[in-house]
Each structure stands twice: as C-alpha cells, then as structure tokens.
Design the sequence.
C-alpha cells in the first residue's frame, strides 16, 4: 500500500523530545532537565526547566492562527516595553540573535519563541480585591504610556470598530442557522453598536498599542508588588477604551463588577489621564468584547471542537449581550 508521509492535519501537538533536541539547542542555555506541555489554546505553551533551576516558557504558535509577520509584531512590542522599563515576559534570543524559529508541522509552518518566566503569581482577587484591581489599573496605564511611541515594520489587523463589531459575526453564523431569531438579534445588535461608535471621529478616542487581553490575569505579581505582563498573543493597534473594557468584561463574568471596576479605573487614572469620551465608550466596548469572545470560540472550532458550542452556550452568550444593553442603558 502506498502510504503518504502523514495524513492531512488541522492541528498537532509537537513532541517535547523534539523541542529539546531540535529547538532549545539554538539557545545559550544550561542543560534542559524538563520540558512539559502546560496549555493548549490559540497556541501551545511548554514549561522548560533548566539544571540550574531557571524556568522558561516555550510557545508554539498555531499555523492557522499566527503568521511570522504577526509574531514578529508581537515581539517588537514586547521588546519595546522591556526597553521602556515595563516588566514583561520577554523573548529569549537565539545564539545568532534572532528570536523566532519556524518548524514544519504536519498542518503547516509554526513559529516557536522562548520566553522568560513572569516572576510571581496571578493576582488572587478573593482578598483585597479593590487594592489589587487598583494596582492592576496602574500597571495597565504604565503599559499604555510606554507604548504611546511604539512602531513596528510588521503589521497586525487593527482592533477597530469594523473588526470588533462586524467582522466578528461571520464565523458565528453557521452555529445559529437553526436559531434565526437569535441570528437576527446579533446582526441588529452589532449594527447598533457599530453605528454608535462610528459616530465618534477616530481622533476623539485614544488609540494606540493594546495588549487586548488584559483580564486582570495574564500578569504575575511578585512579593514586592511588581506586575509582569505576559501573553501578548492578541495584541494590536486599537482603542485603549477596548483594552480597558476587557477587565470590566471579566468582572461582569465573575459578578464582581461593583467591586473591581471603580478601583481599577481610579488606579489607571492615577497614572494616565482619560478623556470623558473614552470612559463613555468603555461600556460599548464591553459589548464588543462579548462579540469578540464568541468570534474567538467559533473561529477556532476547527481546532477546539464544535460540540461545546451548543444551544446552552449561545443561550448564555445572548443573555449576556442583552444584559449589557440593560445594565449600561445602551
């Protein structure tokens, strides 16, 4: 029987042994004693432990999710933040000074980058939530402040109104063919917010580099209180109000908005001022985040599976969207 090298593949998990033998040897590192897969998501993250006890994290980006150009943009931003004194998990250079390796996986080329460890632990908002939210707001403001002059020769799709509130809908459509009323609601919902935000001139809202996933996590805090950011996979140019709305969105999901949001906003404004219009736009971008999150799940269904994107999922998602309208009087 004529056997091809491998069957066409949508997504693979690369071998840890191969990463140690063929990828990690490109770095000036102590002996690697352990390499374990930690997370599988929009990319795969491996924890790398050296003989001297140092820990690094190796990220293998998915072929269909991030191109070499997009990963290069992300690393430019992280290196810029590091130069500006913002604590970040930064890329480790190879022996030749480059940062990215490209491996030929069955589904296509995948970028691989080694990152330093983000020292500390994720914030635990179960205690002193107001203090921690305020400190996180300050750190986010410093991140924005440090990237006001960021530029890169590489590009990413901007997090603009068109993307957040219109292009996000198309991957959702196939999941709602049996729910035409809900599909019509989503279209009308997105159109309303798109029209409202489009009424404001681009110059009226603060725009610049955004991490785009500042949930209040994706950062570690060390014993001295220093916040170290990591996971810039979703970063792009966009509205800073959207970057801030992500934290408010998470606080809604956790039913802690009344506790977290005002301290976070106050902390941010202690470091970096916001115009009134940016503050007014944040609730609208919370709605945009809900749509983006549905887009994230449905556009990655090929890799993450379709089964969990069921009626229960969409009942909950649409309920959340309706609640935003009511709670924020939009």
Sequence:
């Amino acid at each position: 029987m004529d056997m091809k090298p491998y069957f066409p593949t949508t997504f693979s998990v690369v071998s840890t042994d191969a990463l140690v033998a063929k990828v990690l040897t490109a770095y000036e590192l102590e002996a690697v004693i352990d390499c374990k897969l930690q997370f599988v998501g929009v990319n795969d993250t491996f924890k790398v432990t050296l003989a001297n006890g140092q820990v690094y994290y190796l990220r293998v980006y998915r072929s269909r999710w991030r191109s070499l150009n997009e990963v290069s943009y992300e690393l430019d931003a992280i290196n810029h933040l590091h130069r500006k004194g913002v604590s970040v998990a930064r890329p480790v250079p190879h022996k030749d000074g480059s940062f990215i390796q490209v491996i030929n996986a069955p589904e296509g080329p995948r970028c691989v980058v080694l990152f330093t460890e983000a020292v500390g632990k994720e914030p635990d908002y179960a205690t002193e939530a107001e203090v921690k939210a305020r400190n996180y707001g300050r750190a986010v403001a410093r991140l924005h402040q440090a990237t006001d002059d960021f530029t890169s020769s590489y590009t990413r799709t901007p997090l603009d109104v068109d993307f957040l509130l219109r292009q996000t809908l198309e991957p959702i459509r196939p999941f709602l063919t049996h729910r035409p009323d809900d599909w019509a609601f989503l279209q009308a919902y997105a159109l309303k917010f798109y029209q409202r935000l489009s009424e404001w001139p681009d110059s009226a809202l603060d725009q610049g580099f955004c991490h785009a996933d500042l949930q209040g996590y994706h950062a570690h805090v060390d014993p001295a209180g220093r916040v170290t950011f990591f996971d810039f996979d979703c970063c792009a140019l966009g509205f800073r109000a959207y970057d801030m709305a992500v934290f408010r969105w998470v606080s809604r999901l956790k039913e802690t908005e009344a506790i977290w949001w005002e301290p976070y906003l106050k902390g941010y404004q202690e470091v970096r001022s916001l115009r009134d219009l940016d503050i007014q736009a944040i609730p609208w971008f919370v709605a945009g985040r809900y749509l983006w999150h549905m887009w994230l799940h449905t556009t990655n269904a090929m890799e993450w599976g379709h089964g969990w994107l069921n009626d229960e999922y969409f009942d909950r998602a649409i309920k959340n969207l309706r609640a935003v309208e009511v709670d924020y009087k939009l």
Observations:
- The two ends are 64 Å apart (CA to CA).
- DSSP finds ten helices and nine strands in the chain.
- The mean pLDDT is 94.
- Residues 129-327 form a domain with the Aminoglycoside 3'-phosphotransferase; Chain: A, domain 2 fold (CATH 3.90.1200.10).
